[in-house]
Amino acid sequence: MMIAFTKRNIILYFRDKSAVFFSLLAVFILIALYVLFLGDLTAKGLPDFSSKKPLITSWFIAGVLAVTSMTTTLASLGILVEDRANNRVLDFYASPISRVKLVGGYISSALFIGFTMCTFTFIVAEIYLLLSGEALLSFDKTIMIGGVILLSVVSSGSMVLLAVSFIKTSNAFAAASTIIGTLLGFLAGIYIPIGTLPDYLQTIVKFFPVSHSAALFRQILMEISIMDAFSNAPIALKETFLFDMGVNYKINGVKATKLFSVFYLIGTTILFFTLSLLVLSRKR
Known about the structure:
The chain is mainly alpha-helical. Helices cover 78% and strands 1% of the residues. It has one domain. It has 14 helices and two strands, in the order H-H-H-H-H-H-H-H-H-H-H-H-H-E-E-H. The protein has a two-stranded antiparallel sheet with strand order 1-2.
C-alpha cells in the first residue's frame, strides 16, 4: 500500500509541469544571476590564475546542487499540503492504509523526487563542463557526489517536512516556498561568499545544514582546480580562500572536516524527522 501511495505522489508531481518548474525556479534564478553578474563579481574578487574559471564554475555548481536538494523536496511535499487543504487526507484515513504508511509515502516520494531532480541537475552540469572544454569527474568522485546528493536530499527533506507539517493551505505553502527559495542562495553562500558576511551571519550559515551540503559538494568538485590554483601559493593564502568561499568552515575556531559535515547532516536529519513525525502524528 505504501509503495502504491508513493507512486501516486511521484506521478502527481511530474504530471504537474508547473510544480516541476517552480521546484527549480530558485535554481533558474541562481543561474541567471550567475550569468549576468555573480560570476564576474566573484571572479573580480580573486587573483588571476590558470584554473580560475573552472574553480568558480565548480563552486557555483556545488551551491546549485545544495539548493536543488531542498527546493525539489519542498515542492514535492506540496502534494501533502494540497491533500490536506482539499480534505483528501480524510479519505486516506478512512482507507485500510495506516497513518504511518501515509506519512511514509509522502516522505518516500519526496526523497525520490529530490534525488532524481538533483541527479538530473548534476548530469546537466557535467554536460555543460564537457562542452566548455573541462574534464569530467572521475568515477570515484562521481560516486562520492551521488552519496552527497543522497545525504543532502534526506537532510533537506527532513527540514522541509517539519516546515510543511505546520502549513495547512496552498497559499501559505506558496508563500513559504518563495521565502525559502529566496533565502537559500544567501544561506548556502552563493549570492555572497561567506567570508564577506558579518560574523553573526557567518554563524547562521555555518549551522544551516544546506551549507554543509554545499561545502561537501565544493570539496569534491573543486579539488583539482584548487590544487592547480594554489600549487605554488602559501598555505595560509589557500586556507583563507577556502574559508572565505565556504569550501571549509571554522566552528569555534576549529576547522570542520568532511566527516563533521557528514555527521552534522545525519544528526540534523534524525532531529528534524523525529520532530516532524511527532507533529504529524498529532494532526487530526
